[in-house]
Amino acid sequence: MSIEIRHISKDFGNFHALRDVSLDIESGELVALLGPSGCGKTTLLRIIAGLETADQGHILFNGQDTTDKHVRERNVGFVFQHYALFRHMSVFDNVAFGLRMKPKATRPSETVIKQKVHDLLGLVQLDWLADRYPSQLSGGQRQRIALARALAVEPQVLLLDEPFGALDAKVRKELRRWLRRLHDDLHVTSIFVTHDQEEALEVADRVVLMNTGKVEQIGSPQEVWDHPASPFVYGFLGDVNLFHGRAHEGEMLIGEDQQGLRLATPEHSEVQDSKAFAYVRPHDLDVQRYVPGNFEQRGIVAKLTRAMVIGPIARLELLPLDASAAGSGDIIEAQIPAQHYRELEFKEGDTLVLTPRRARVFVA
Ligand SMILES: Nc1ncnc2c1ncn2[C@@H]1O[C@H](COP(=O)(O)OP(=O)(O)OP(=O)(O)O)[C@@H](O)[C@H]1O
Predict the structure, then answer these.
(1) Is 17 touching ligand 1 by the criterion CB < 6 Å?
(2) Angle value at C-alpha 103, between 100 and 106, nearest 5 degrees
(3) How does 126-135 read in b/e, with b if 16+ C-beta sit within 10 Å?
(4) Which of 9, 10, 21, 41 to mutate to test the pocket of ligand 1 (most atoms within 8 A of CB)?
């Protein structure tokens, strides 16, 4: 089932929860809605489900407008963060629930239901728990049962709202791999909401980045990571350092003195002396020892305030000596291979020079 989201807007009182959101989801795709808390992800999911109505715009399923379609007629399966399994029902009865609630004319026989529930429990690899009650399951097991229950009625669309949000990091990681494999087997058009960028990038075919009720960027995980469309996306997807400076005719200057850094920004060759921001990932910073008076050595001069070696990576925290380069008081973070860090023999308190290998410049 394909889903077209056309110019959806939604206000709650004076608050604009969604502003003119448009998005096409292909049949069989797994799409992540990613963004900070309060950006409108859940509201959009609820509108797609029919649990909430939009003030403006339309949702089309397979080209058909769903505006007048009740949630029950949309053939949508849900899984929420706070798994709403029925506590007084066994796992088997929870999964069978949707099938038993079908109108008599379309309700399968108990024999068929039994087979189907066992197949679904097999699919989520928990057949052995059929007789247990929700309170006797781990959080991860409950979410897998919730998914089996959502799939029982053969939805054409699966909507997942922070399905693994309440679980610990290790279980989340296992479950997201498992969700991806399950999706590859079933190909149900699926949308899941998350504020965890790693989860979105790892699981989804495409990621929709949202901020303050608007779509900032839509693309494959690789596209949004490699080519963030806006400063917001750059900052939201992973750690990033922000440097301030000025752009002029295809070059950005960071820092004032002769050893200031010049970054080539051919994409801004038309710009005349404008305020600019450079975004640089910690692993894209080269770090060398500072040599006073060496004018060949251009870069951001900073003091090493803290160094942590975590496995193969050394994480360095640095304070720029020229506060105008970064936001005042802002720590710069660099990541270099631990081996390299040991060879350089840096110590906390050393003055170092940072040069970005890769930067993305936005002009104000
Ligand atoms: N029924 C409601 N009445 C008033 N305001 C609401 C209602 N539902 C949501 N909002 C507001 O709309 C905004 C978007 O909410 P939404 O739940 O869609 O955000 P979200 O991106 O899913 O956030 P989170 O990740 O925290 O769940 C929030 O500021 C929220 O307070």
Answers:
(1) yes
(2) 85
(3) bbebbeebbe
(4) 41
What ipTM is given for this predicted complex?
0.92
Q: Which residue has the higher pLDDT, 339 or 296?
A: 339
pLDDT digits (tens, 9 = 90+) for 213-244: 999 999 999 999 988 999 899 889 888 898 88
Question: How many distinct structural domains can be found in the chain?
Answer: 2
Q: Residue 9: CA atoms inside 13 Å, Cβ hemisphere, count? A: 10
Q: Within a 10 A sphere around the Cβ of 155, how many other Cβ atoms?
A: 19
Q: Of 22-31, 43-52, 138-147, where does mean pLDDT reach its minimum?
A: 138-147
Q: What's the rounded mean pLDDT across residues 37-46?
A: 94
Do 190 and 94 share a structural domain?
yes
The alpha carbon torsion through 348, 351, 353, 354 (nearest 10 deg) reads 30
Helix (H, G, I), strand (E, B) or coil at 226: helix
Task: Give the whole-angstrom CA distance, residue 252 versus residue 261.
Answer: 8
Domain with 277, as residue range(s), is 241-363
Nearest CA to ligand 1 atom 29: 38
Ligand 1 mean position, distance from CA 40 (Å): 6
**Predicted structure pTM score:** 0.83
Name the pLDDT band for 254 (thresholds 50, 70, 90): confident
| Residue ID of nearest Cα to ligand 1 atom 3 | 12
CA distance 217 to 291: 42
**CA distance linking residue 235 with residue 346, whole number of Å:** 28
Cβ–Cβ under 8 Å, residues 59 and 8: yes
Q: Report pLDDT digits (tens) over 301-344.
A: 899 999 999 999 999 999 988 776 665 458 999 999 999 999 99
Q: Is the CB of 43 under 6 A from ligand 1?
A: yes
Q: Residue 269's domain is classified under what CATH number?
A: 2.40.50.140
Q: How far is the CA of 27 from the centre of ligand 1 (A)?
A: 27
User: 161 and 245 share a domain?
Assistant: no
Whole-angstrom Cα distance, residue 5 to residue 48?
A: 8
Ligand 1 centre to CA of 190 (Å) is 21
